[in-house]
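Input record (one chain):
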Amino acid sequence: MPKYRPSFPQKGGQMGMMQQIQKLQEQLAQAQEQLAQETVEYSAGGGVIKVVMTGDQHCQSVVIDQEILKDGDVEMIQDLVLTAVNGALDASRALASERMGPLAGGLPF
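The corresponding structure, as predicted from the sequence alone:
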């Protein structure tokens, strides 16, 4: 009766997987660098508040139309800023997911 011999991955297979992982890491780093350069913009209140966010979720600018300041409704301005920031974050995350998603499909496991 033959003895049972466990099968272990061949060294060449491990090297191939390591090369795939290294290539994927390089692609991810490049995609992250590109995301840091791309921006999304979100407006609230009919465009009186605008937020620009990078693809890696860094806020680049917040623009408030001076006309809204004349009303003096601080709570409304705060709500609009909050809405614009959250909208810009959502748009930035969607952009990141769109750019990074295909790379995750290349994982070897």
